[in-house]
Every structure is written in C-alpha cells, then in structure tokens.
Amino acid sequence: MDERYVSLKELGSGNFGVAWLVRDKKTGELFAVKYIERGAKIDEKVQREIFNHRSLRHPNIVRFKEVMLTPIHLGIVMEYAAGGELFDEMCTAGRFSEDEARYFFQQLIYGVSYCHSMEVCHRDLKLENTLLDGNTSPRLKICDFGYSKSGILHSKPNSTVGTPGYIAPEVLSPKEYDGKIADVWSCGVALYVMLIGAYPFEDPSDPINIRKTIGRILAVQYSIPDYVHLSSDCRLLLSQIFVSNPLKRITIQEIKEHPWFLQNLPEELIEVEKNNYENLNSYEPTQSIEEIARIVQEAQIPAEGSKHGRQSMEGT
C-alpha cells in the first residue's frame, strides 16, 4: 500500500474501522481508503460491499477503484468526495428550500435507479451515505454498500437492516421483501429530512425512542409542520412514497415521471441514462473479480502480532 499511496489525514472512523485520505504517488490523484482489520471483520457483509460496489459505475455513485492489503488491514480504495456528507450540509443549512432539496433528490433517484438496473438494492440509503464532490454545483455521490444485495448473486432480502428512521415498514417484518421498493421509501425519508430538517417518523417529544419510531413507521404517521410551506406536488409525491403496502408505493420510474421531480431536471442525468451508461466505461476497475476475490480471501486470515488502532495507519 505504501508503495502506491501517501496517507494525508484521517477522514473518519466507525464500526468498520477507519477511513483515510491518500494521494496516488504516480498521478497525484486523491482517493479515500476504507481500512478494515484483517480476520473476522472481513465477513460476508464486507465481501458483498466490495463486489456490489465494484459492479457500479455512475456519476452519482462513489467510484470503486481497488482493494489492497496491508499487514494489518484490507484497504478499499475509492473516489474521494471532497464536499463531505450531504447530511452535514443539510445540518448547516437547517433545512433546504424545495428547489435545493429537489436538486439533490433528482441525483439520488437517478443513482438509485442505476443501482436497481444493475440488480443491486442498497438497503441503507440515508443522507449520511451520500457524499458531495467539491464543485460549486455539487454532485451527489451514493456510498457505503455494506448492506447491499444483488438480485443476481444473493437471495431476496429478509433481514431487518438499515437505519431505524429510514427503514420501510416491510423491512420490519420477518418475511422476504423487495429491496428495491424498500429503497424508494428510504429515498422519501431523505427528501423529507432535506425539506423539514427532521425525521418524518420520530416522535418530536421523544425522538430517541426507537420503539415509538417503529410504531409510527408501521402506521405511516408523519406530518408537515405548519412553518414549512411545500407545493402541493411535493406533498403529493411524499404521500405516494410513504405507503405501507410496497405493491402500492410509487416506483422509481414513476418518481422520474412525476411533475414535481421533472422541474429543473439536469440534462446530464437524462443523457447518462439515455446513452445507456456507455460513457462510463472509463470507470472500469483496475482489478479483475478473481484478483479481488483472492485478496479478500487472504484478508480473512488474521494478522499476527500486529498493533491495532489508529496508530497503525501512520505511514501507510
């Protein structure tokens, strides 16, 4: 790893491990590297994340580059989105105007639509899993495919995964569900949060009570505060997304044809899809599936006698 990249700074950490900003020594290009400790943490979830992410090449999805091994970690190298999380941008603003929210929602929907066309459902869509590039007209980038499932490689989803406030009602049942339709609900939550600056199904008087949140999700109990003025078309779209019966919920394609969604729709979103994503060939990962599988398999072997933690990243 240290032959190819220079570590610059830590970007963040979580249950997975730690993420660092690195620079390619040859090209000078910046990348983000997600480091996961070798051994037991390289489980089926991590493998799914890597293989599903590798298959996706779209302007609104963080680009996968390669996986690499260090003595202690598996490193997932990907595009660096300099603008940070959309969630932080929204928190700074308090909430977005309808036009601003639509601008990001349009990109989210086109990115998710592409995932679905590739038979990948994300299953943890939320503002924290959408990043922004550093441009003045920021481009949204979907990231973190840890809970994703492929309709080609994996069985139908039947487990309750995701973030409580974003979870669709059917995900809370023990039965199989359609991950794509559940993704639509999560997109609706993201839109609501951008517009209102709060979560639709949290009890305002008891927001940390997950049991209450789940009850309100199952009852589809949400409201638009009086101080927020939304157009009738926007309210209608939210009501068509927040439908408990997944078979009656609006589809991604229907959202893309919705009058509210079509306002000020960026031409580049339409062009990428119209060209059947042909201009995305330059995103081709440098590693074959076989090579990645070999590296992941090797990463499942724990590192012996290694010092763990943040310090181990220094000089990587």
Automatic annotation (TrEMBL):
User: Which keywords are on file for this protein?
Assistant: ATP-binding, Kinase, Nucleotide-binding, Serine/threonine-protein kinase, Transferase
The organism sits in which domain of life? Eukaryota
Q: What InterPro entries does the annotation carry?
A: Kinase-like_dom_sf (IPR011009), Prot_kinase_dom (IPR000719), Protein_kinase_ATP_BS (IPR017441), Ser/Thr_kinase_AS (IPR008271)
Q: Which reaction does it catalyse?
A: L-seryl-[protein] + ATP = O-phospho-L-seryl-[protein] + ADP + H(+); L-threonyl-[protein] + ATP = O-phospho-L-threonyl-[protein] + ADP + H(+)
Q: Which residues form the Protein kinase domain?
A: 5-261
Task: Tell me which EC number(s) this protein carries.
Answer: 2.7.11.1
Give the residue spans that cross the bilayer. Answer: none
Broadest EC class assigned to this enzyme: transferase
An annotated Gene Ontology molecular function = protein serine/threonine kinase activity
Q: Which residues bind ATP?
A: K34
Family the UniProt entry places it in: Belongs to the protein kinase superfamily.
PANTHER family the UniProt entry points to: PROTEIN KINASE DOMAIN-CONTAINING PROTEIN, SERINE/THREONINE KINASE
* Protein name per UniProt: non-specific serine/threonine protein kinase
Supply the source organism for this entry: Coptis chinensis
